[in-house]
Amino acid sequence: MLYLSLRQLEYVVAVARAGSLTMAAQQVNVSQPALSVAITQVEEHLKQKLFHRRKGTPVTLSGFGRLFLADAQALLSEAARLESPGGLSQRRLERFVLGVFEDLAPGYLAPLLRLLRTRFPEIEVKTRVATFEGLAEAVRSGDIDLALTYDLRLDASFHRDLYAQVSPQAWLHPDDPLAKREEVTLADLAGRPLILSDQGLSIRHMLGLFRPLGVTPVVVHRAASTEVLRSLAANGEGVGISYSNPVAAMSYDGKPLARVPIADTHAREPIVLAYCGEQPAPLPEIRAAILGTDIVFSS
């Protein structure tokens, strides 16, 4: 708990500037005895004399008092800035937290981290990888400043900057007849056994893509990650569908697999940079830097 108040610091600064208890008391609108008591209380707490006070001579600062005055003036200036309506807008963050949806992280996190550390070397950049729900909650609570994610069920409290539009990919065994096509449609996949992500929002979104076709597809596997999904597809367990688009044509367990874009326009999904509320500098600059990048992992 702080013992000294801002008012007491103002008294010290006033006496130092005026060189007189009487004149300082008039300036801060208190009685001279009350001001003298306040200064004595500060000195007793610090166990140091701030002023040399002798009858008939101006009040002067001690050596310790000169040091204390500099810090007191700086603290009062900072306090004045804090209570000013526009004061915070003059400050710049020294630490920034970027959140990335877990399926996007393998392709986007490292390039964005390198970009931000190059463009903003004075900022400490932290990262956090999470689910849709985890990112949304962390942005709302202020634990994450910006989140790169799909625009799935973000409510009106979020601001969104469009980063990219991506199409889903179909992952198939190389011998599958559809594997030779340049692209496929959801109608081509509607009757096939599907492998989808096991995330609640993700699987509901994928199933919703088939709703305009009037079909309910059969989901044979709910994969815990994109790599598990790709491995299952490479081993002939069904057709995997994901928005993540790793460049490797080999599954994690060493099996070849084919990737074919899904052409339906209504299936394209925006990747957004999401945040809440007004943002202090340099977050608008950071957003502009991120939105100006061209990372093609999932495009």
Automatic annotation (TrEMBL):
One of its GO terms (molecular function) is ATP binding. GO terms for cellular component: protein-DNA complex. InterPro entries: LysR_HTH_N, LysR_subst-bd, Sigma_54_int, WH-like_DNA-bd_sf, WH_DNA-bd_sf. It comes from the Bacteria. Belongs to the LysR transcriptional regulatory family. PANTHER family: HCA OPERON TRANSCRIPTIONAL ACTIVATOR HCAR, TRANSCRIPTIONAL DUAL REGULATOR HCAR-RELATED. This is DNA-binding transcriptional LysR family regulator. It comes from Aminobacter carboxidus.
